[in-house]
Design brief:
Jelly Rolls; 3 domains; Transferase(Phosphotransferase), domain 1; alpha+beta
Length: 515
């Protein structure tokens, strides 16, 4: 990316052209992408009397630029039938040999004009509410997912390629993806747009940020973009994790690998935010929007009867508790959708509500029978792609009607993975006498391993027993084992077969050694 504006072709700075191709009257230059010497103009179609967007590829005297332009035109032509709300519709494409283009123009794409705002204008008045930002981003994330399903690439990793419609939706307006654009860029682009809407800083190229009139995002000593929550205290961990994960901003933040994953998580987070709209919004570092129900303008309100205030507080407290349960559940489900690698993703730990050794409602007195309940349960998958992380606690909740299962694999282990497991942690070291696994997945092979902590490599765990699951309940004697606080149930062989290899666990009961 050229860092020197003076090295741009003259037509990228100003132009004496009045009308292009005998039809399109230039009105205003709206964007510049110096990496491919492309410029974006708002123009007037003098025949159909409507505004359009023009993406022009300009001659710069560089080796191979004609071939690059031809490739970009070819990419644009493949967009002919692509129609998504998050992408401006293609109307026409012209090559350099068209005969109606100026000599210093190597290609032209005509798209519908996207009225509204640029990215810089959208954040010109300061940060926006999280709910509003997620809603704005959703069309662009959906367009990236749809493009990849059709073998296309948006190539929108430039702040001036994105505009926002009067309704607020993000839309790719600046056409012709660069030849170097990849599907990975379409994962980073929505994340970069999200980062900017939340903070007012563009997290990718500093040169592009300057051209777009945006501040470049600050970076740490390792040249990694700082989390958006640093620039905007109060931003939720889930939104920050999505942003950094899709940007691929360093190992500790994880990574989102596909546009489909970005769109799915944006949708889930947006649903969660909308479900919480009945409650006063948490401080996410942005002022309330003008259309929000909840406002605090500092003016004293009418005096409220104390008894009525007490009843209102109780009612709102109950509503808040119910909403919190829903939100926590949805966030747990996101663990299986994020596409994060487990070594770096934000860890979602499902904590059982009972204390160790406490009886479960409606169950026998487990304290007397020696049953001990785990404090937390997580999916253990050192090879990546953990299986159904949001359901891990169902395997140890004492409820035989709920369950956790692995994914269904077409080939048995170790074709894709060496195994997958459940890491069970107790509040303190426990001397176990037996554990019993309730499962319909006959033939599944499970290793019982102790671990020094819940987050360790498999090589640091110690094998203390093995079992092959029976039809329903499979007891595993633990007599003679050492006290353990972290216990791994490591599945090395799956049940089923014939392309339907899966292991499902309804319940694991842990019994403490008595006496």
């Amino acid at each position: 990316m050229s860092a020197n504006p003076d090295s741009r072709p003259a037509a990228m700075i100003d132009t004496e052209w009045g009308v292009i191709a005998g039809r399109y009257e230039l009105l205003a230059r709206m964007g510049i992408d110096t990496s491919v010497h492309a410029v974006y103009w708002r123009a007037r179609d003098t025949i159909l009397q409507r505004d359009v967007g023009l993406t022009m590829l300009l001659r710069a005297g560089e080796p191979g630029e004609s071939d690059r332009a031809d490739e970009m035109v070819d990419r644009a032509l493949r967009w002919g039938r692509f129609a998504e709300p998050g992408c401006a519709r293609l109307l026409d494409v012209m090559r350099r040999d068209n005969g109606t283009l100026p000599d210093d123009m190597l290609g032209l794409a005509v798209t519908e004009w996207v009225a509204g705002q640029s990215l810089a204008e959208a954040v010109g008045d300061g940060p926006l509410r999280t709910t509003a930002v997620l809603g704005m981003l959703d069309p662009l994330a959906q367009a990236a997912e749809a493009a990849h399903r059709q073998g296309l690439v948006l190539g929108c990793v430039h702040p001036q390629r994105i505009r926002f419609t009067p309704e607020g939706g993000a839309r790719l307006a600046f056409a012709m993806p660069p030849p170097a654009a990849t599907p990975a860029d379409d994962v980073r682009a929505p994340a970069a747009t999200l980062y900017t809407l939340l903070t007012g800083h563009w997290p990718l190229s500093g040169t592009d940020a300057e051209l777009a009139g945006l501040a470049a995002a600050p970076r740490d000593v390792q040249d990694v973009v700082v989390p958006p929550g640093i620039l905007r205290p109060g931003l939720s961990l889930e939104v920050s994790a999505l942003t950094l994960g899709a940007l691929g901003a360093g190992g500790p933040h994880g990574r989102v690998h596909t546009a489909a994953a970005v769109h799915k998580v944006v949708t889930e987070l947006l649903t969660t935010e909308q479900e919480a709209a009945l409650l006063p919004p948490a401080d996410d570092g942005a002022p309330p929007g003008t259309d929000e129900v909840w406002h605090d303008d500092g003016a004293p309100g009418p005096e409220v009867d104390p008894d009525r205030r007490r009843k209102l507080r109780i009612g709102m407290g109950g509503l808040g508790l119910a909403a919190a349960v829903v939100i926590v559940y949805v966030l747990i489900q996101l663990g299986s959708m994020f596409g994060f690698t487990p070594s770096s993703a934000p860890r979602i730990v499902v904590t059982n509500p009972q204390v160790p050794g406490a009886p479960v409602a409606g169950a026998p007195d487990q304290a007397l029978s020696g049953v001990v309940l785990p404090a937390s349960t997580t999916v253990f998958a050192p090879a990546g792609d953990p299986d159904n992380t949001g359901r891990a606690a169902r395997a140890v909740d004492g409820d035989p009607t709920s369950s956790w299962s692995t994914f269904t694999y077409r080939q048995p282990f170790p074709a894709l993975k060496s195994g997958v497991g459940l890491m069970v942690s107790f509040a303190s070291p426990v001397q176990l006498s037996r554990l019993t696994i309730t499962s319909p997945s006959r033939g599944s092979r499970i290793e019982i391993r102790s671990a020094p902590t819940a987050d360790v490599p498999l090589a640091q765990t110690v094998l203390i027993g093995t079992t092959s699951l029976e039809e329903r309940e499979t007891p595993v004697p633990m007599a003679g084992s050492q006290p353990v606080q972290h216990l791994l149930l490591w599945i090395t062989e799956l049940g089923g077969g014939d392309g339907q290899n899966v292991t499902e666990i309804f319940d694991v009961r842990f019994e403490r050694a008595l006496g």
